[in-house]
Request: fold
Amino acid sequence: MSDSAVFNQDVSDPAVFDPIDEARRQWVEHGWGEVAEGMAAVTSLMRAQQIMLARVEEILKPLELTFSRYELLMLLTFTRSGALPMNKASARLQVHPTSVTNAVDRLAAAGLVERVPHPSDGRATLVEITANGRELAEVATEKLNAGVFARPGLSPRRVSTLVSVLTELRRDAGDFDS
Reply:
């Protein structure tokens, strides 16, 4: 099949060809063969993230949640008191404090969390999950467990391998110390 035939295929038909494999072939053909596998790996990760995010959003959207807000609710449910300082939530979620502030604003407006004064540090604010927040987090988790996490698209052995590989990538990037 010629290059023009490949790139003029109907992209709504996923069975026609693998666009990332074609991009890898093009990389090699254009003299970038030594980095073609790296390009394919990065592009594949980005596409896999899009696929997973779409599956997660399909479940969370009817609950009026985004994945980042869901993660914050779950983080709070896992704490003993149901509350964390905003800066600690930011660190644990590995996101910028502004992102946590935005998520807290939206969750608070929905009655799912509250901002409360820190009991021993007058400068700090805690974000605390409400009963409604706990209830919604439980419903969302049940739906995500059944609809996404139980069947991520790979065999259990391959999922384990994927987690191991991604953990290595994250460690190498400085995501955490081992």
Observations:
- The longest strand covers residues 113-117.
